[in-house]
Each structure stands twice: as C-alpha cells, then as structure tokens.
User: What shape does this take?
Amino acid sequence: MLHNEKRRRAAGVPERRRGAAERCPQGHLKAENLRPGRYDCASCHRDRQRERGRKAGAKPAAGFGENWKCGHDPVTSARYCKGKEKGCKVCHREKQRLVPYDAEKVRDYVSRNREAVNAYRKAWRAANRPDRVEFRQGGPEAVSYARFIGNDPCVYCGGSSQAIDHINPVTRGGMGEWSNLAPICTSCNSSKSNKHVLQFLMYRLERIGARP
Assistant: This one.
C-alpha cells in the first residue's frame, strides 16, 4: 500500500483523502454513507452489487424464514429482539436450554439489577396468588379453601408453607377443586414439580436412604 502511494505521488496523481468530497456523484452525503476503510459511498456500492447480481441471473433474496432448515413456521415462531427479526424462537429456546447453569453469573446479575429483580418477583407473586386461574376454575369454594389453608404447615415435611400445591398435578389432569389443594413449602413444591403424590413420597424415601 505504501509503495502504491509513493508511485502515485511520483506520477503527480493528487492524493485521495477519505471524505474529501461532501457528496458522491449520485448525490449521497458521504459523511453518512462512507464505507468503513473505503473511499466510495456505501449506498452506491450496495446498488452496484445488486445490479451485478441481477445481471448474473442471481435469485432474489429469500424472505424472512424462507431459508430456515428447522421447518418451524416463520409466522408463529418468529423471534423479535428490539423490533428486529432474529430468527426462530423455538430453536433459540432449545439452544438456551443446553447452556450450562452458571450460579455465579446469576448472582452477579441479581446483585447488579436488584430493583428490577424485586419488581419481577413482586409481579410474579401477584400473578400467582391463591385466586389465580387454576383456583378460579374450581369455583369460589376453591378460592376460599386456598386462603384458609394458606398458613397451615406443609403436608409433606411439616415446615412453614409458602404456596398451595395441586395434589394431582394440573399437567396430569388435576383440577382446581378444593379437594385437590394442599399447603406446601417452597422446597417440597420445587421437588414435587409435576409428580404424583406416590412418586414424590418414593422420591423422598430414596433421598433419605430408606427402602420401602
């Protein structure tokens, strides 16, 4: 590059300066359209590339989702981030599940965003209070019963309860009726997940090393 500059100076060719002209021959403002590290206009370069593709008989650019190999519907599975199309949200979710859990990273994020995390937790608790949808489906009796047993000890370990458990999980056909509700602590609620009662009790026995 330096050798070429010397040759141009020796031949009397005027030195080109980046952005010397205010506008390109097409009228574009160079201050806004300069290509990084180049002398020509980005808009003109783009137009030339498109024209070159048309002359070569290139296929038109594929629309959003037309070149997805996953087979998911681009209309229902499109992922948007800050108003921009970012690909398939189903595939993105599956990739995120494979990322190993980093407890130190989570603690660091919570410490730096304490107010936002507290606001999210408060909104979550408001959306998951005892009279949420699952209990309303059981009628007013289920709502009243959930409030009545809210301060009872956990039915599985005897500790203080912080939630209401569906004895027969909703994901396995359980209903929101009052007979299917029981107080439960946070630890047991997390361990039970969507297990049936018998499965959960067998799981607790295995944890403590007991054999039925």
